[in-house]
Amino acid sequence: MGWRNLKMKPVFYERLFQLNRCLEQVCDILDLYELDGVIHPLYAGARKRSIEDLRADLSHILTGMLHQRELEACVKAVRPKLETQAGDDHTKA
After folding, report:
1. Local confidence band at 87 (pLDDT 50, 70, 90 cut-offs)
2. Are 33 and 39 spatial neighbours (Cβ–Cβ below 8 Å)?
3. Is 37 left (phi over 0), alpha (psi -120 to 50) or beta?
């Protein structure tokens, strides 16, 4: 297995970007409702903080999970090479 095969699917990162952008847009829309006087500034602020907390939490967790997948793929690619090298060393001894 070559290093080229270890690339994570771009769709995973695209989804993460979309998720972050969608939650940012929710805050933008709340700003508009607040500016129009539809919702109270205190309520809007509390909701925006909640949404930002959710966005940050999801981003942190999903980034960590994607990183974990990348590490696992690297280990799977390197382990057979190390085992082959170790086997060659034992046969030479």
Report:
1. low
2. yes
3. left
- Name residue 88's amino acid: D
Total residues found in the chain within this entry: 93
At 10-54, the pLDDT tens digits run: 899 999 999 999 999 999 999 999 999 999 999 999 999 999 999
- Please tell me the distance from the alpha carbon of residue 3 to that of residue 90, in angstroms, as a whole number: 27
Tokens 């969608």 map to which residue? Answer: 22
Q: Taking the CA of residue 80 as centre, how many other CA atoms within 13 Å lie in the half-sphere pointing to its CB?
A: 6
Could you give the CA distance from residue 8 to residue 27 in angstroms, rounded to a whole number?
30
